[in-house]
Write a structure and sequence with these properties.
By secondary structure, this protein is α+β, with helices and mostly antiparallel strands. The protein has a domain at about 40-115: Alpha-Beta Plaits. The protein has helices spanning about 5-15, 50-55, 85-90, 120-135; strands spanning about 40, 60-65, 70-75, 95-100, 115. A hairpin with a 4-residue loop joins strand 2 and strand 3 (about 70-75). The longest helix is centred in the last third of the chain and has 15 residues, at about 120-135. The N and C termini lie far apart (about 70 Å).
Length: about 140
C-alpha cells in the first residue's frame, strides 16, 4: 500500500464519527422475520409429531402423556436447534412459531437450553416420572 493512500485514509477517518454500536446498552428493534427461540402452543397440538420428524437437528421431542385428552409435553433442546424453522413450516395446526423478541439465548450452563413446553401439571408429572429413574443407583460389575 502506498504511503499517500494510507495518509488519505487516516485523515478521512479522523473527521468521521465512530460506527460502533453500543449494543448491550442501546438495542435496536429486531427484524420482523428473525428466527429466535421456539414457542409452542399446546392447545392446538394434535400430537402428529411431524415437527419432531422433520427437525434436522433432533431438537424436538414430543412426549405423549394422554392422547385422548390431548396432553402433550414438548422438550425443546435449544443447544441442538439450528433455527431453520422447518418444524414451524411442517406443523399443520400452527402450534409452533419462532419468536423474534427472544433471541439472546446465551447462558453459562447447559441447563437453560432444555426447555419443557406444555401445561404446568403435565410438565411436573413428566419430571416426577423421570426423576426416580435418574436417581436409581447403578450396579457395578
Amino acid at each position: 500500500m502506498k504511503i499517500g493512500a494510507m495518509l488519505g485514509d487516516l485523515l478521512r477517518s479522523l473527521f468521521r464519527r465512530p460506527v460502533t454500536e453500543r449494543y448491550p446498552f442501546v438495542k435496536r428493534a429486531p427484524p420482523e422475520r428473525l428466527r429466535g427461540a421456539l414457542r409452542y402452543d399446546p392447545a392446538n397440538c394434535s400430537g402428529c409429531m411431524l415437527c419432531m420428524k422433520d427437525c434436522p437437528a433432533n431438537a424436538l421431542e414430543l412426549i405423549t402423556i394422554d392422547r385422548k385428552a390431548k396432553k402433550f409435553v414438548m422438550r425443546y433442546h435449544a443447544d441442538r436447534c439450528t433455527f431453520c424453522a422447518q418444524c414451524v413450516a411442517s406443523c399443520r395446526f400452527k402450534c409452533l412459531n419462532m419468536s423474534n423478541e427472544q433471541y439472546e439465548l446465551a447462558a453459562l450452563t447447559k441447563a437453560p437450553f432444555t426447555v419443557h413446553y406444555g401445561n404446568e401439571s403435565d410438565i411436573q408429572a413428566l419430571l416426577d416420572a423421570v426423576a426416580p429413574t435418574n436417581s436409581a443407583p447403578t450396579a457395578k460389575a
